[in-house]
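Appendix B: a complete holo record

For completeness, this appendix reproduces one full record from the ligand-bound portion of the collection. The bound molecule is S-adenosylmethionine. The inputs are the chain sequence and the ligand SMILES; the output is the full three-dimensional arrangement of the complex, encoded as C-alpha cells. No fields have been trimmed.
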Amino acid sequence: MQTISVAVRRNIFLKGIFRFSSTIPVKTSINDKSLEYIYRVGIRNAPIKEELLAETRKIYPEDADMSTDRIQGDFIENLIISINAKKCIEVGVFTGFSSLCAALGLPSDGKNFALDISEEYTSIARKYWKLAGVDSKIDLIIGPALDSLIKLRMEGHENSFDYAFLDADKPNYLNYYENLGSIIQYKT
Ligand SMILES: C[S@@+](CC[C@H](N)C(=O)[O-])C[C@H]1O[C@@H](n2cnc3c(N)ncnc32)[C@H](O)[C@@H]1O
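The structure of the chain with S-adenosylmethionine bound, as generated:
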C-alpha cells in the first residue's frame, strides 16, 4: 500500500455531460497492484503531450496550471476511445492540451469543436495540434463560448455531440450546460 499525492478536480457528471470544478490536492492510499494497473493501462505514451505542457509552463508560468493535468488528459483520451465518440465539444482550450488528448482519442473522421476567446493562447494550441497530426480533427472557434454555443445550435448541431468538456469561465457554467443540453445526444 502506498500513499500518493494527487491533484483532484471534483468531477460532476450531469446527464452524460462531463463537468469539472475546482482542483484540490489530496492524499490517497492505493495498493501496489492498482497503481501498477493505472500506470500500465491508463497512461498513454505521447511525447508531444509532455512537450506541449513544457512549453505552456515556459511561456505562461503563472497560468500553466490552467492546463488539464497529464493523467486527466490521458483519462479524456481513454474515455473518448471507450465511448466511441466521434463528435466532441470543449469550452476552454488554453494552449490546447485537453483538445489534443480528445483528438488523439478520436477516429480519423472524428471532430472536436474547441471553443475559446483567446487568439494568443490558442496559437500555441494550433502549433501542437499540427505537430501531433490531429489539426484536421479540431475546429477551433474563437469568441465568447456562449455565443459560439448558441450559433452551433442555430446551425443545426442539435443532439449530435457525443462528449462535452466544460473548462472555462466558471460563472457561466449553468448557461453553458443549458445550451449544451440541446446539442448533446443522450444515449441510453
Ligand atoms: C482552464 S483554461 C482551459 C484549459 C484547457 N481545457 C486545457 O486543458 O489546457 C480556460 C480557458 O477559457 C478561456 N475563456 C475564458 N473565458 C471564456 C469565454 N467567455 N469564452 C470562451 N473561452 C473563455 C480562456 O481563454 C482559457 O484559455
